[in-house]
Fold this protein.
Amino acid sequence: MKINTLFINNLAAYQIFFSGDKKYKNFSAKTLPAEDTYVSLKQERPPCTFELKKVKGLCCAACGNDVVTYEESKDFQNLIENAKGKQLRNILQSRQRLYNGNEQKIVTKLLGLSSQHEDKNIQQLFQVAFEDSRKILVQKQIETLYKLKRLSKLVQNPEHKRNLKEFIDNMIELAQSRDKIFKRKDVIYELNKILKAANSEADRAVLGTTIKYANYLPTSFNNEHAFIVKYSRRRPGEIASMLLSPRMSTAEHIKPYSLEASDDKNNYIIECKKCNQERGNILFADWIKMNPQILQNIKKFIAKTINAIKSGKVENFEDYPIKVNETLKERSAGLIYFYLDDYQKSIRQDKEKTG
């Protein structure tokens, strides 16, 4: 069992702030939970050894986009590390098919800046873009925070109203400071705490709407300016890694691990990091109903996997398409099942040839 003490200390800091103690004035971005802090009450799962994660040319079974292997990401990072000018632009353009929407906007901006600053690497280009991006980011943050502040006036409970106003004012002050940033998830975390404490339907409705608007705060996942501000001090290789991060190949349990699912390879499919995180612990049948395009994208994934098996890119996976097809049928309540008779026949013939 592993409990991060920094996170516990931060919770204490939050409690001081919302208790009405004068110490809330010392509340700053530094007291917000760091990105890598967490409380884990579960036994850590063993490292995943699903071999398809290493196979190039596969697609995400959920969204259908091409996924990036660890090896491809490392190659990209190494190429970017010292690249400048035309060389940098060529490397960035060569990975166009592997960027998601937000990352594509960033790369487009980098290509333009690189043409103007031939002597700068990707980190230096981020620093060139930093001031303009920071201004745009802060403007968007403050616009959203003022919407939250207006909503806070509708809260009826005097204590919750005061706590909410003080918290939002503090976030506005942080947004305007030059050396501190805050994260959307930290704002939503605090709003949820106030929501849980609300004891009237009217206040819960207002706070629910407030949280809805808080979700419009920009993040590095959905806003190019937030991405540039967040990663402007990172090394070129780290920036390159983050540009491909949403498309990283991950092993996704068909039956969620949290439901004591098997780590057998026939309970795995490949999903990009973004889709994997979006699904969380949603049951597979529900996940399909929420995203009906999965039906076609899993078919595409299995077809690419069969091609990888036949071309020798992965070994000892001959039975995988057949067995995972059965798992998909079971966990999707019959929504997914593919005709693989031709593939089964070819596998039997191959086994007969090899004796």
Observations:
- The longest strand covers residues 249-253.
- Strands lie at 2-3, 39-40, 249-253, 268-272.
